[in-house]
Write a structure and sequence with these properties.
By secondary structure, the chain is an alpha/beta fold. Among the domains are: 1-19 and 31-154, 3-Layer(aba) Sandwich (Rossmann fold), CATH 3.40.50; 193-297, Rossmann fold (3-Layer(aba) Sandwich); 403-498, GMP Synthetase, Chain A, domain 3, CATH 3.30.300.30. It is built from 15 helices and 23 strands. It binds adenosine monophosphate. The site of adenosine monophosphate has 18 residues, from β13, β17 and β18. Adenosine monophosphate binds next to β13, β17 and β18.
Length: 508
């Protein structure tokens, strides 16, 4: 029997398909019927351009409900959906087209010319456009196409999507996710987070990333709707729609921005059942403030492009601030040293995971893939973590963000938690800089909480009461905004480059 994820969704669509799957920003509704019809038309258009099972379809477009139909059309054909961050430049797109060799590239209407040029140079057979208002050549061609109803026969190991990792170091890698990976993770999360008919998900995440697409959209497709779709996160828009929603999935910056908004009150959250956070660490401080303001405990979960979601705080049970909860059902997590030896509970090491959620490898990088798996099938995540005897995992940072100062390990998160507690601190990021004496020195940037700013030396002195000497930042700079990518992850590599020369020749 075909293991196509689309079949899994359709099986769970409501009996009455005239019901809304999604509500657009302008309030118009997209029913399940309409979604399926558009999916079938897109599938026909893609097929008319030669797309067959296994072909890549690269997509770099602004967010709209049509993108969801395009994703489903790829599933329908057994083709590989390849969403690309809208922030990528021409040079970056050229790399992805060259690497993934898609059959079709779907871009935004006003980038047609440059995209055609890139496509020609990279042997992409066709370029289609897709706007956010039902415009673009994909929609033009879909209008006169028959809606295909054939759904490709696939196995659970066939690839459904390739998502390029953010690639802060080295080449960006294409993570291959199979129908089985996506199906198992969506079913697991749907159950773990207690989705029921009647849930309404407020969607403010991008659709080119695992969080917005494979967590948020897949769950709601399994749940029989319904999504309220926002083109992006805007605190005013979110606050206006919270009373009509029951679930919000966000990155930590959503929550800090909501907390900074005077209109974000307990009242506006009274219809809400669940707030989920992930993709970057949520400070315990934010978790606590959110609880004080709203009475809701944010549920933090942990995952990555390569693995979908691995761990989650429980729906019922302790949602522990600063921790990402136990491994999800069917998934194993362990913490090991760099040679793969399992460490005792509570010790910091690299988190490794195994389960039906873990990807099939990096596109055309068999050696890189092999080097990131253990012989027994565990994937080495590159995240530093502890695993408690109670199964709860705490992420302490990326392996590559670890600071080694005077031979001692400093985990940025620990220092961030200390500095983040001071009233004058809005946001903080801690990172290592080359230092002639210590190898690396701890440094920090903060976004002050108010216009009064802060006194650097006084703040450094205060951290000395809480942190061992080698963890105390040698410098703390003020910054207007932390450099974050679209998923809210602080770009520490950028900070390291910016301040790289600070301690040069400063041997003391
Ligand atoms: P991405 O592949 O873009 O989803 O990024 C995955 C990475 O985001 C993980 O390897 C972690 O470093 C980080 N991440 C995701 N969720 C969390 C979380 N809840 N807490 C801390 N880091 C997280």
């Amino acid at each position: 029997m075909s293991q196509n994820l689309l079949l899994e969704f359709i099986k769970r669509f409501p009996a009455d398909r005239s019901r809304p799957f999604l509500v657009e920003y302008d309030g118009s509704e997209v029913s399940f019927d309409k979604l399926l019809d558009l999916t079938g038309r897109y599938a026909s258009v893609l097929a008319s351009h030669g797309v067959v099972k296994g072909d890549r379809v690269a997509v770099q477009v602004d967010k709209s409900s049509d993108v969801i139909a395009l994703y489903l059309a790829c599933l329908q054909l057994g083709a590989i959906h390849l969403p690309l961050n809208t922030a990528y430049t021409g040079d970056e797109i050229a790399y992805f087209l060259g690497d993934a060799a898609p059959r079709v590239f779907v871009c935004i209407p006003n980038r047609l010319e440059t995209s055609q040029d890139l496509a020609r140079k990279n042997n992409v057979a066709a370029v289609l456009t897709l706007g956010t208002k039902g415009d673009g050549t994909l929609n033009d061609q879909a209008a006169s196409a028959d809606a295909s109803t054939d759904i490709a026969d696939v196995t659970e190991d066939d690839i459904a999507a390739i998502l390029y990792t953010s690639g802060t170091t080295g080449r960006s890698k294409g993570a291959m996710l199979s129908h089985g990976n996506l199906t198992s993770n969506a079913l697991t999360l749907h159950k773990a987070w207690g989705f029921q008919p009647g849930d309404v998900l407020l969607h403010a995440l991008p659709l080119f990333h695992t969080h917005g697409l494979f967590v948020a959209v897949n769950i709601m497709l399994l749940n029989g709707g319904k999504i309220i779709l926002l083109s992006k996160f805007d605190a005013d828009d979110v606050i206006e729609r919270l009373p009509k929603s029951t679930v919000l999935m966000g990155v930590p910056t959503f929550y800090t921005r909501l907390l900074a908004h005077p209109g974000f009150t307990r009242d506006v959250t009274s219809n809400m059942r669940l707030f989920v956070s992930g993709s970057a660490p949520l400070l315990a401080e934010t978790h606590d403030q959110f609880f004080e303001r709203t009475g809701h405990k944010i549920l933090e979960r942990y995952g990555m492009t390569e693995t979908c979601m691995n761990t989650s705080n429980p729906l019922d049970g302790e949602r522990r601030p600063g921790a990402v909860g136990p491994a999800l059902p069917g998934i194993e997590a362990r913490v090991c040293d760099k040679d793969g030896n399992i460490l005792p509970h509570g010790e910091i090491g690299v988190l490794e995971v195994r389960g039906p959620n873990v990807f099939k490898g990096y596109w055309q990088m068999p050696e890189k893939t092999a080097s990131e798996f253990r012989k027994d099938g565990f994937f080495i995540t590159g995240d530093l973590a502890t695993l408690g005897a109670d199964g709860y995992v705490t992420i302490v940072g990326r392996d590559k963000d670890l600071i080694i100062s005077g031979g001692f390990n400093v985990y940025p998160k620990e220092v961030e938690e200390v500095i983040g507690e001071y009233d004058e601190v809005g946001e903080v990021a801690v990172f290592g800089l080359p230092h002639p004496d210590f190898g690396e020195a701890v440094a920090a940037v903060i976004v002050p909480a108010n216009a009064n700013g802060f006194d650097e030396q006084e703040l450094i002195n205060r951290t000395q009461d809480k942190l061992a000497k080698f963890k105390v930042p040698k410098r703390i700079w003020k910054i207007d905004e932390l450099p974050r990518n679209t998923m809210g992850k602080v770009q520490k590599a950028q900070l390291r480059t910016q301040y790289a020369d600070t301690f040069k020749g400063n041997a003391k």
